[in-house]
Amino acid sequence: MNTASLGMLPFYCPLESAVHPGLREAERRAVDWIDRLGFCPTEAERRAVLASHSADFYARFAPEADPERLWITACWVYWGFAFDDARCDEGELSSDPARFAAMAGRVQRALEVPGPYPCADRYAAAAHDLGELFRGCATPLQVGRFVRAHRGWLSGVQWQVGNAARGRLPDLDEYIVMRLHSAGGEPTYAMLEIANGAEVPAREMDTLAVTALTEMAVFVAAMDNDRHSFAKERNRGQTDQNFLSVLRQRHGLTPEQALYEGVALRDRVLCRFLAVRERVLRRGSQELRRYLTDLGHGIRGNIEWGLRVPRYLARSGGPGDGPGGGPAGTASRTTADDWAERPLDGSAGPPVLAPSIAWWWDDSLLRPDRPW
């Protein structure tokens, strides 16, 4: 599978594109935070983190966010990419499950503890500062939802690290379950309420329909990230746990078949997401409508960001000029060739190879005697 093969299939995404007008100010304040916390000890690490264009990334997820909250949520994205590169995908802990678990537990606890908390580890110290920033601007329920989502992300990464240590490649269904956590979509979407200052009532957020919509949005973004990151990960020898590798090695497909089948599954899920979201939007509160609309913004924005961000443009030779590898907003330069008019698969039923997500197609979620 080469990079050119990945470019053969454009992205199906009939969702609105949007970006927060305060992107540049959010980027400036987030970079100031990175420099103040000092979790990038070398200039090379700092350049790599800024080249993630994380402010651009999250400005597309929450295009109507409170500017005083947008920069804080962008800080977590910068931190997450730095942590992912240093501790999850690379480094001595990335294939040592026991040591990774202990480290991740300390980082998670640093995020959770309010007030002064000494942290020798630079990533834990930054996580604690983020926790303090979140507690200073968000409600206890919003912070609690984010903390639980963050814990889910680290547990998924631990699963991934365990597979790497054993040299084990999961089948498609197991990979999907792991990736729903390890992709980092849970905390990324959990921050929407914080960024927007809009708390979704539990009677809505905790329904099966909204849970399914959140999982579907995470799934689509995770599959798109697999496509975005394949060239980067291939150059670093990290492609074992990727939907392309899973379909090739565990399910016996050719590279071309693996790409087609993976993208077709992604498109099928996106079609289901759009159908369910349309029905839920009709009766949701203003806060829920904001959240569900931004789930869609996140799907679209993640594609736009990934198509142009230096982090994934391995063939470009590295980050470009400027403090973040190029000016803020460079991820917006997509072309018509990047987009598909129709899904590869718009089937109404659940996929055979992925029973763990079949419940997303259960129309009993939308029965009149249930909230949605």
Automatic annotation (TrEMBL):
The keyword Transmembrane does not apply. Keywords: Lyase, Magnesium, Metal-binding. Transmembrane segments: none annotated. Its EC number is 4.2.3.-. Belongs to the terpene synthase family. Residues 316-354 are annotated as: Disordered. The keyword Membrane does not apply. This is Terpene synthase. Residues 335-344 have a biased composition (Basic and acidic residues). Residues 317-328 have a biased composition (Gly residues). Its cofactor is Mg(2+). It comes from Streptomyces lycii. InterPro entries: Isoprenoid_synthase_dom_sf (IPR008949), Terpene_cyclase-like_2 (IPR034686).
